[in-house]
Design goal:
The chain contains five helices and four strands; from the N terminus they run E-H-E-H-H-E-E-H-H. Helix 2 runs parallel beside helix 4.
Length: 127
């Protein structure tokens, strides 16, 4: 993933406002990454977040390391701000879903609560 730093916070915030309908997620100092703007990816994120070992941050880091696109950011002393635009959302969906499935399978639990069981069904995982 290509990385572009915008040094001036006001320029970065202006860019965030203009790109709001184009980015996949926004990583901001107060809340971090709390949702994905793509409905299908958000559904994957929501279903994976019921497991303690798999959070939105993990998925975002996977995307940044394994998918094509641009991470635009401002690394200000008050906190990191960044947003990601991807080149091919279909490719990202496939890769992220496989990443989540592998992570769940490699972290088997002794018991699964009702939300986790629903997530296993969503991902087609039989335990």
């Amino acid at each position: 993933m290509k990385k572009v730093e915008i040094e001036k916070p006001e320029e970065y915030l202006d860019l965030v406002a203009r790109k709001a309908k184009e980015y996949l997620y926004h990583d901001h100092p107060t809340e971090g990454i709390d949702f994905f703007c793509d409905d299908e990816l958000e559904n994957i994120g929501w279903h994976s977040s019921v497991f303690e070992f798999l959070k939105y941050r993990d998925i975002a880091e996977f995307i940044e390391e394994n998918c094509e696109g641009t991470l635009t950011f401002n690394d200000h002393p008050m906190g990191f701000n960044g947003f990601v635009e991807v080149d091919n959302i279909e490719d990202v969906r496939v890769k992220v879903k496989q990443f989540v499935i592998e992570k769940i399978k490699s972290n088997k639990l002794e018991e699964y609560d009702i939300d986790q069981q629903e997530s296993l069904e969503f991902f087609g995982i039989k335990i």
